[in-house]
Amino acid sequence: MTVSDFADLGLAQSLARAVRELGYEEPTPVQAQAIPLLLNGSDLLATAQTGTGKTAGFGIPMLQRLSAAKAGKEPRGLVLAPTRELALQIVEELRSLARFTEIRIAAVYGGVGKGQQIRALRAGVDVLVATPGRLLDLMGEGHARLDRISALALDEADRLLDMGFIHDVRRIVNATPGSRQSMLFSATMPKAVMNLAGEMLRKPARVDVSPEEPTVANIRQQALRVAREAKQSTLTQMLREPSVSRAIVFTRTKHRANRVAKALDKSGIAAEAIHGNKTQNARQRALQGFKDNRIWVLVATDIAARGIDVDEVSHVVNFDVPNEVESYVHRIGRTARAGASGVAWSLVDPEEQRDMAAICRYVDRPIEEIDEDLNPVGTFTVGRPRDNRGGNGERRAQSENAKTGSANTGSANRSRRRKPRRRKTRATAPA
Ligand code: ADP
Ligand code: MG
């Protein structure tokens, strides 16, 4: 089914108006497919990557169905999300969508005091957005009850499970009435997610927005061969390109995120690191600074970045090549949000060739190789470095590095050598 107009989706007036005021002109593919199914009361299993508009995809029908039913004090809608950032973003979007309804929305998440959350619950909540740990705490203390839940959404289910929340999620799901409507959204569908879907969904409708649309198709993917020790200076140079208006740089570890952000800052590029070791406040500040354009480069680890939802990110830079192709897709999906176009750059050192090869095989379109001046020089092919790059220092360093290992740069990356390709990255702590 393709619906190219919100007016054809059967939205109540209040929601149609909110959507208009948000400036959404037409539904994204996942919205066009999910909204009618959910309005009909179906359970739903949806595969869609970040940036495809999932929040409104489940939010609109949830709000519409709830606003047609009688409110009480206990929450009737529940959204589970893996991180605080994500929970906060969902609340922000739901509140915008609900502004012409009477629906009350609140969030509960860890890392902050409970007082305000308890007060909000006491005052009465229609839709509760929660991270699992804090919700269970509040349930245990008698502050949150789920026996009136009629709609349950799991957002980013793969990440919820990756972060070890499976038992918490099960306990929460089991505390809700069996008669509820359930929806599960996930960027990837590994077996654990399918199992959970089997447990909690009843005859779900399926929506599958293939990874290359709408987001990845609009992303120009480029890769640059560079010696490990030249990465920092190359990055600085790349970010000085006039076409870079806002960038997210990905590193594999928190430590490297800090180092890279510091070095950028020293070179006069306003950058901040965002990762799980930072306090909630520090992360919110960094994100807000990014949204307000006070800083225009965010250096992030994979998990911390899952919650980042900022439009108009012109560039994503893989400072380290991820060792999972799914992470690559997630990362580059941070640019080209909701149909805009963007550029993804990957800095590939000799030890990262294998991971890059896997990525090249996985993505549909060839990844372009660029030279140090960012000019395209052809398709990126692993194992066949180009010869037309002149005998500069970087190149020498690269071949030296290939022979001797990363002797100059210490141990930061030793652990990733010779890793089996499919192994999950769990090095970064939950955000
Ligand atoms: P996801 O959860 O799939 O990562 P989001 O729901 O966070 O995606 O949406 C990504 C961005 O796109 C948000 O900034 C959101 O406000 C915007 N957006 C959502 N739906 C639409 C739409 N129909 N038209 C334009 N922008 C949209
Ligand atoms: Mg989302």
Give a quick precis of the structure.
The protein has about 425 residues and is of the alpha/beta class. The chain has helices at about 15-20, 30-40, 55-65, 85-95, 115-125, 130-140, 155-160, 165-175, 190-200, 230-240, 255-265, 280-290, 300-305, 325-330, 355-360, 395-405, and strands at about 45, 75-80, 105-110, 125-130, 150-155, 180-185, 205-210, 220-225, 245-250, 270-275, 295-300, 315-320, 340-350, 370, 375-380. The protein is about 35% helix and about 15% strand.
Provide an overview of this structure.
With 431 residues, the protein is of the alpha/beta class. The protein has 2 domains: 6-210, Rossmann fold; 213-428, Rossmann fold (3-Layer(aba) Sandwich), CATH 3.40.50.300. 37% of the residues lie in helices and 16% in strands. The protein has 16 helices and 15 strands. The strands form 2 sheets. An 8-stranded mixed β-sheet has the order 10-11-9-12-13-8-14-15, sandwiched between helices. Helix 12 links the parallel strand 10 and strand 11. It is globular, with a radius of gyration of 22 Å. The two termini are 37 Å apart. It binds adenosine-5'-diphosphate and magnesium ion. Adenosine-5'-diphosphate binds at residues 24, 27-28, 31, 48, 50-56, 93, 309, 311, 337-338.
